[in-house]
Amino acid sequence: MDNRTDRQKYLRLLAQQYPNVRAASSEIIHLQAILSLPKGTEHFMSDLHGEHEAFVHILNNASGAVREKVDIVLRDSLPADERAQLATLIYYPEEKLEELAAAAPSRAEWYRITLSRLIDICRLCASKYTRAKVRRALPRWNGDLINELLNKNNDIFNKREYFDTVIASIIETDRAEDFIIAMCSLIKRLVVDHLHIVGDIFDRGPRADIIMDLLMDHHSVDIQWGNHDVLWMGAATGSRTCVATVLSNSITYNNLEMIETGYGISLRPLALFADETYRSSDVSCFLPKTAEGDEDDIRDVRRAARMHKAIAVIQFKLEGQTILRNPSFGMDDRLLLDKIDFAGGTVQLKDGVYPLRDCDFPTIDPADPYRLSPEESELMAQLKNAFLHSEKLQRHIRFLYSKGGLYKCFNGNLLYHGCIPMDEKGAFLKFSFGGKELSGKALMDWCETVAREGYYAREGTDERQFGKDFLWFLWCGRNSPSFGRDHIATFERRLIADERTWAEPKNPYYSYYNEDEVCVRILREFGLEGEHCHIVNGHVPVKSKDGESPIKAGGRLIVIDGGFCRAYQPTTGIAGYTLVYDSWGIHITAHEPFPGRRTAIQSNRDILSTSMAFDRAETRIRIRETDNGLCLQQTIDDLTELVRAFRRGEIKEDNRSAD
Q1: Whole-prediction pTM
Q2: Cα–Cα dist 594/203, whole Å
Q3: Within 221-261, where are the H helices?
Q4: Radius of gyration of the chain (CA)
Q5: Rounded distance between C-alpha atoms, residue 614 and residue 553, angstroms
Q6: What is the pLDDT of residues 232-266, one digit of tens each?
Q7: Which residues on neighbouring strands pair with residue 559, listed in sequence order?
């Protein structure tokens, strides 16, 4: 069948939706009008690491975009402190509303004024969208009334009393608070058209599960998997290696609430095993980070340390099994349990012999160090089953698979969490997997396919097993694109005092990404060219206190590690960066540490932020210049061709519904 025949078939299918010239022409007019609208605002965040309070605040304030709208509308009529109050109300309407209303001399008058102000702000936010798109964003129960209020025009005399009556009736029927909450939600919904999460939702912070719930409720989001995300994805597949590593990480950061409360996974079997096996052991090397030196609850601290030691030993064993099972990973040098001299209390690394801080490992058989004991095998079977049957975890992981990937090209920008692996000369690093030599985009595509097979391939197949192992490789494998380092030094950090062994050398990418030519080459590899194309990168905290800039290669690459993780903030000096790409260009925002949800609400304290525009558009960016605009233009071209086919008589019009 030739292309002309295929095209005719397509046009006939299109004619089923637009059966005549009038219908097709109306849609052309509608789509052409949409192309002239300003592009929607994109909001970029990265490295959330379970810090749900800071995430919620930056999600609510859209990295300052909400306050900017408040200031635009009310700068000339409202002082700064009252604008701050109103912004806080928009961020946290349920928590802030009663406080402000109760403090007003007249509650009814406060309702009237606040509703009017919110309507004006919301109207500004809605101005860049079609009325149809705004209607789709409205709540069901009061959407029609809000739609009426958004289209209020005080200059139209005949309707002025109508609008005043609507607001008065809302107050008289005790619906003002519901409407205020709905308006605040709508403002936040309209300020950001699309949200990008550039990796690492999980680990370290207390409640990544709360973040995942919020992302699942978001109207438009994509996610680029970070190495901590793929680790949890691996645990959800039932990979024992990933399950053990997830638990080890969670205990390290004293973060078991999410495991037990968030995901309903009981750690009682681990606690019982640890108490029985390591009751008399030295566990000082395995104290949770946030509990060191805490004398208030030493019993719980020591129990957590015993659990940590138990699962860490299992982790080291299972990692060894994974490496032995997959020689293509090229990680034999990370087989360390068989390098331990138990009698001498030392371990042989590549560069020498080092004393161990702890050599009391009753479950390790020196003759077969990577074999789990029967008790460890039984424990891991229980834990694996718990991860597989956590309904909430499985729901979150399916969402990560449906909305996520290792990279994304969106409106001229290339988004990924870790790196595009490179060799010492700056060429794309070549990996050999399954008889294939892969690098650059082909590597990223292949890695993503295998990661999906780890979850979706049929249980018991080779594809499923390799996919599960590969998710662990993506987490910490040598130069993996989501990890970007030579190795992870968990063993050394836990058991060797010499900090020189703790180094985790970065892939050469992190030296070359400062060069414009290299970034242009990466963008071209993914089909992106032009002076306004950028790489948006997460993963590596920017040490701003040492003068490091998040903007690399003259603006070709932007690092937006969110710095949400409090453990990193003393090193970086700030709470990281976020990015906003609106119709006027790209702005990067540096954030100070979040003072806490309660302080933010009670004191109207926002996260102190500094915004810098580094790629400002010469003229306002319209939808026609976006990826969606290209799709709409293609539809316009197809409809134009359909109209010509109608008029030439090649396709018959159906005018039964023309009137």
Answers
A1: 0.92
A2: 18
A3: 227-237, 240-252, 257
A4: 28
A5: 12
A6: 999 999 999 999 999 999 999 888 889 999 999 99
A7: 537
